[in-house]
Amino acid sequence: MTAVPSFAAYVVIGNPIAHSKSPDIHARFAAATGQDMEYARLLAPLDGFVATVREFVAQGGRGANVTVPFKLEAYALASKLTARAKAAGAVNTLKFDGDEILGDNTDGVGLVNDIVLNAGFDLAHKKILLLGAGGAARGVLLPLLECRPAQLTIANRTTAKVLELVQQFQQYNVGARTLSACGFAEVQQQYDLVINATSASLQAELPPISASAFGPATLAYDMMYGAQPTVFMQFAAAHGAQVRDGLGMLVEQAAESFFVWRGVRPHTDAVFAALRAQL
Ligand code: ATR
Question: Is residue 80 domain-shared with residue 146, that is, in the same domain?
């Protein structure tokens, strides 16, 4: 058995990377849990992800978070994948142990923990609408299904993409009574939870979603976050929904990565509050 050294090196790898809040989050987790670890930003050239990782490992690196645009390359690089990384088809967490490179994906459990534990919103037997069929949506599908919702509907602008995603995920449908695809125009009924996993908020755009999806009992969750509510959150709130942005998901996915590496689960409340105050 290899003992975990008292000092270990971790990084977040991406391009660009200067904006990443991960070093701040992990420094706070390390201080709160008494873990002696260093966590830095690592900029990889767009054509040099694998070489950058290998050099980091050669220097004694123990683990890495992986962000845009390298999550698919990290998936391909891993010598062993967790079930949730396989389902996501992408890796945001690498753990280096001898010759082994473990690839994991903590985004989905980060979302679920923020909704269930932090927002106190139980997902079992609920009707969930997931907006978007890209990497962000795919990354959270398995953990959502494992919460056993009554219904999980995925709506997307490009119908072919959402049909393919739903077909791929029928094999993972351990929980939802129905997992189905639709176009935005077909969204008619009210949902308990509506999650915006499109990238529309990045352009301050609103997915073309009917107001009928929202009501006072609806939680509208945007995976994006910022100092101001996103247009999606503003629209949902105007139609009576409770709203939440993705800052908690960011902190919770980091906590899960920290647990994967260090075997210690940090509390997230104080870190969440500190990050919110900095926005
Ligand atoms: P990500 O990794 O963030 O999911 P992606 O794989 O490029 O990025 O997927 C972006 C998602 O946002 C897609 O579902 C996209 O819809 P299409 O599949 O039709 O392209 C969705 N999207 C982006 N801008 C949107 C907008 N203005 N309205 C609705 N959906 C939008």
Answer: no
